[in-house]
Amino acid sequence: MAWHGGKLVFVEVKTRASGEFGAPERAVDEVKQAVLLRTGHDYARRAGIEWQNVRFDIVGIVLNRPPQIEWLQDAFLADAEREYRFQPAQFAHL
């Protein structure tokens, strides 16, 4: 968890030894997103943080030489019907 641009950011970090089985961030499936959203919502409520000031990011790391790091900001969100979905991907390469 961190603050970035005035938002409380929950960051899920996934690491893989190689990219052989796909990008690490793909391991954050709908079930994992639901758990993160529920936990984040509870934390924000208890801390008195407005929900619109919360963001969920994913950092994917592949342990190549050199390591490949992808930072997916605003990776997923909950819409009004509480359906969980990935945002259009915009990666920040670190």
Characterization of this structure:
With 94 residues, this protein is of the alpha+beta class. It has one domain. Helices cover 19% and strands 38% of the residues. Strands 1-2-3-4-7 form a five-stranded mixed beta sheet, with helices on one face. Strands 5-6 form a two-stranded antiparallel ribbon. A hairpin with a 2-residue loop joins strand 1 and strand 2. The protein is elongated and about 40 Å long. The two termini are 18 Å apart. The relative contact order is 0.22. The C terminus is likely disordered.
What is the structure about, briefly put?
Helices cover 19% and strands 38% of the residues. The chain is an alpha+beta fold.
Keywords:
94 residues, alpha+beta, five-stranded mixed β-sheet, two-stranded antiparallel ribbon, 1 helix, 19% helix, elongated, disordered C terminus
List strands and helices in order, with pairings.
Layout (H helix, E strand, L loop, with lengths): L1 E3 L2 E10 L13 H18 L6 E9 L5 E5 L3 E3 L5 E3 L4 E3 L1
Parallel strand pairs: 2-3
Antiparallel strand pairs: 1-2, 3-4, 4-7, 5-6
